[in-house]
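A further point concerns the way the authors explain their paired sequence and structure data. Nothing conveys this as quickly as seeing an actual entry. An entry of this sort, consisting of the sequence and the corresponding backbone structure tokens, reads as follows:
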Amino acid sequence: MAIEASSEQTREPRIRLGMVGGGAGAFIGAVHRIAARIDDQYDLIAGALSASPEKAIASGRDLGLDSSRTYSSYREMAIREAKLKNGIEAVAIVTPNHVHYDAAKEFLKRGIHVICDKPLTSNLADAKKLKKIADESGALFVLTHNYTGYPMVRQAREMIANGELGDIRVVQAEYPQDWLTEAVEQTGQKQAAWRTDPAQSGVGGSTGDIGTHAYNLAAFISGLELDSLAADLDSFVPGRRLDDNAHVMLRFKAKGSEKPAKGMLWCSQVAPGHENGLMVRVYGTKGGLEWTQKDPNYLWYTPFGEPKRLITRGGAGSGAAAGRVTRVPSGHPEGYLEAFATIYTEAAHAINARKKGKAVDKAVVYPTVDDGVKGVAFVEACVASSKKNGAWVKV
């Protein structure tokens, strides 16, 4: 496969990686560390793993980090690592949303590449400022919208770009979960507590946490850009301060002489029976596509007037875009962690090209700071529209 590490004789040195957040008890930090290691492109050598100095030190010890490279603050880490001869080349930021802006800024302004969890920031003003900082820094900024790393998502994107669906008319995305059906944040559950806290999460609840994923994936696959939306947000659980369910109507910008496509997005964290029901459907003048994360190795394709076809990862009909991010033979499950790893490996390709002063291969695809700004703009537009009783809002 194209993204696999090269042989020991010709392979690039592992990229020296640091991490902000992701200490003991943090779910997503462990996911990032696994993803960074799957294709053997990174060495985790430093971390500011918790806002608590004691927890940061203990977490660094558990991960086998040198005590001199375990920091009590991300600013201290950025300053010292930038001065070291063998300092980190990239940093993974895996904190709650409100920390992303300040942490990323400290590393970007010192020329250290940033791999940041989504959403980009907790508000649009900070997102726009961070984009400016990233653009001026010369460092790469990679946003971990990990679902874009699935081979069959790349397959769908390639088919649409090649015109196999014709002019796109309808895009539907949904992301239902059920884990916040009750007020678990009131029990002290860490993941629920910060995600339902406006001070840490921003103005969006389900829209920011999972709606941004559905929106990003719909745009990534379809190649369309959002023009405006009308949203109806709810906080069904009594006392909850952020939305836990959203229905959003979408209007996309026209492409050439085509009539603008329309869309719908549903995200919910109060939908019993749905553990992680991410799905995207796209319909055009020539056919339709359907992909769901619960069966990520399958893509359903229906040319208009013909029987429905199943394209499998690594199977007949699967193209080059899917093939270059496929690791194991067809018929063997390849899932969430591998898709996450694809983002890290695409980032590694870009970082290594930058070190050599070369252009990044056009086949390399990863979400950028621009995608992050669009995601935060989506969330704020949803909130603004819902406050106006579902009025249409430009994004």
